[in-house]
C-alpha cells in the first residue's frame, strides 16, 4: 500500500505544477493557442502603420532625389553649339526625329486635353533649341512657334462648345501657341461623348487636312488606352496608328503612354519607375534595330522611338496657368487631377503602335 500512496502523491504534485497550463489543453491533450491579450490587435495595426509611414517617406525622398538629379543632369533641350556631336545631345531623353521636327501637331479630342495630359510635352517642345541636321554641319535654331494643336471636338456635351473654344484659344496663347495654330472643330460626326466611337474616316480626313495645311513633320496624340479610357481618345489613336503604318508619307506619330490607375495619380512618385521603363524601352529598341540592320546613321538613331519629358517646377505651374483659362472646367475633380496626376509632371511618348 505504501508504494501506491507515494505514487498518488507524486501524481497530485505534477497536477499542481501543471495546473495553469492544463486549462489551455483541449480534450485531446494537445496544447491550445494562447488567447490574445487585450490591446494586442491594435498594437499590431500600429506596427503596420509605422512600417507604411516609413516606406512612404522613403518613396517620397527617393523620388525627390531622382527628380533633383534629372533637373541637374538633363541635357535637353539640346544645344549643338556646345558640342561637335550636338546632333546626339539629349537623344536619351527625346527621339532625335522628334527633336529635329520643325512643325509638330498635337491632336486631342476636347479642349483642356492639351493641359491635363500633354503639358510636359508642349512646354518642353516649345523651348528653343539648336540642332544639327544629318544633311548639315551648321547648328540650326528652331524657334517658337513650332507647335500646332488640333482639337477634333469643341467639348459641346453640355452646350458649352462656343465658350470652350474661346477657352482653348486662350490656353494655347498661354502655352505660346498663336490662335491661328490652334484649331477647334465642331463636326457633327465627332460629338463629345464617353460612349461614341468616332468614325475613323472622318478623323483621318480632318487630320490629313491640317497636316497638309501646316506642313507637319511630327504628330503627338493619345495611345490605344487614351489615358482615361475615353472612347473619343481611343478612336483618335486607332485612326492615327493605322495612317502611320499604312502611309509612308504620313508624319512620324508619337503616342502618350497610358498607365495603371495608382501610377496615374502618383505624381512625381512615379518618376523612378518611369525612367527605368524608358531606359528599358530604349535598350530594347536599339537591340531590335541592330538585329534587323535598320538604316540608322548612329547608335542614338537606333533607339529613337521614344521620348520622356519631365517638367520643371516652373513648367508645372505654367501648365496650371494654361488650364486656368478653361474656366468652365474649374471643378473639384479637375483640381484633384492637377495636384496628383503624373501627367502634369511626366509624359512618356512612344512611336505609334501596330493598329489594333
Automatic annotation (TrEMBL):
Q: Which GO terms describe its molecular function?
A: N-acetylglucosaminylphosphatidylinositol deacetylase activity
A Pfam family that this protein carries is PIG-L
Give residue spans, biased composition: Basic and acidic residues.
Answer: 9-18
- Which GO biological-process labels does this protein carry? GPI anchor biosynthetic process
The record's SUPFAM superfamilies line, in alphabetical order, gives: LmbE-like
Q: Which GO terms describe its cellular component?
A: endoplasmic reticulum; membrane
Q: If you read the UniProt record, what top EC class would you report for this enzyme, in one word? A: hydrolase
Question: Which EC number(s) does UniProt give?
Answer: 3.5.1.89
**According to the UniProt record, where is the region Disordered?**
1-38
Q: What InterPro entries does this protein's entry cite?
A: GlcNAc_PI_deacetylase-related, LmbE-like_dom_sf
Instruction: Give the highest taxon in the source lineage.
Output: Eukaryota
Q: Indicate the family of this protein.
A: Belongs to the PIGL family.
Q: What is this protein called?
A: N-acetylglucosaminylphosphatidylinositol deacetylase
Organism (species): Puccinia coronata f. sp. avenae
Amino acid at each position: 500500500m505504501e508504494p501506491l500512496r507515494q505514487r498518488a502523491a507524486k501524481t497530485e504534485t505534477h497536477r499542481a505544477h501543471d495546473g495553469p497550463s492544463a486549462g489551455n489543453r483541449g480534450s485531446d491533450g494537445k496544447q491550445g493557442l494562447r488567447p490574445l491579450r487585450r490591446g494586442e490587435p491594435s498594437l499590431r495595426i500600429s506596427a503596420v502603420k509605422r512600417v507604411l509611414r516609413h516606406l512612404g517617406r522613403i518613396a517620397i525622398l527617393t523620388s525627390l532625389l531622382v527628380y533633383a538629379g534629372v533637373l541637374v543632369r538633363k541635357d535637353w533641350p539640346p544645344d549643338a553649339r556646345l558640342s561637335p556631336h550636338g546632333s546626339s545631345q539629349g537623344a536619351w531623353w527625346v527621339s532625335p526625329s522628334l527633336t529635329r521636327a520643325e512643325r509638330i501637331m498635337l491632336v486631342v479630342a476636347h479642349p483642356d486635353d492639351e493641359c491635363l495630359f500633354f503639358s510636359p510635352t508642349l512646354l518642353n517642345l516649345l523651348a528653343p533649341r539648336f540642332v544639327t541636321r544629318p544633311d548639315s554641319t551648321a547648328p540650326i535654331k528652331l524657334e517658337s512657334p513650332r507647335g500646332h494643336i488640333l482639337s477634333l471636338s469643341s467639348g459641346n456635351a453640355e452646350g458649352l462648345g462656343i465658350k470652350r473654344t474661346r477657352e482653348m484659344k486662350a490656353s494655347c496663347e498661354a502655352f505660346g501657341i498663336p490662335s491661328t495654330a490652334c484649331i477647334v472643330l465642331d463636326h457633327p460626326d465627332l460629338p463629345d461623348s464617353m460612349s461614341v466611337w468616332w468614325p475613323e474616316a472622318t478623323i483621318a480626313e480632318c487630320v490629313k487636312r491640317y497636316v497638309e495645311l501646316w506642313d507637319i513633320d511630327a504628330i503627338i496624340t493619345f495611345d490605344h488606352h487614351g489615358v482615361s479610357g475615353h472612347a473619343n481618345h481611343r478612336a483618335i489613336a486607332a485612326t492615327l496608328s493605322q495612317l502611320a503604318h499604312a502611309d509612308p508619307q504620313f508624319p512620324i506619330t508619337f503616342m502618350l503612354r497610358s498607365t495603371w490607375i495608382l501610377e496615374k495619380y502618383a505624381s512625381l512618385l512615379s518618376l523612378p519607375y518611369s525612367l527605368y521603363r524608358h531606359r528599358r524601352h530604349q535598350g530594347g529598341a536599339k537591340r531590335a534595330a541592330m538585329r534587323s540592320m535598320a538604316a540608322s546613321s548612329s547608335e542614338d538613331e537606333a533607339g529613337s522611338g521614344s521620348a520622356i519629358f519631365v517638367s520643371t517646377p516652373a513648367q508645372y505651374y505654367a501648365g496650371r496657368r494654361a488650364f486656368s483659362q478653361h474656366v468652365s472646367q474649374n471643378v473639384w475633380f479637375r483640381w484633384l487631377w492637377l495636384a496628383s496626376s503624373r501627367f502634369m509632371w511626366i509624359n512618356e511618348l512612344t512611336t505609334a503602335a501596330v493598329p489594333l
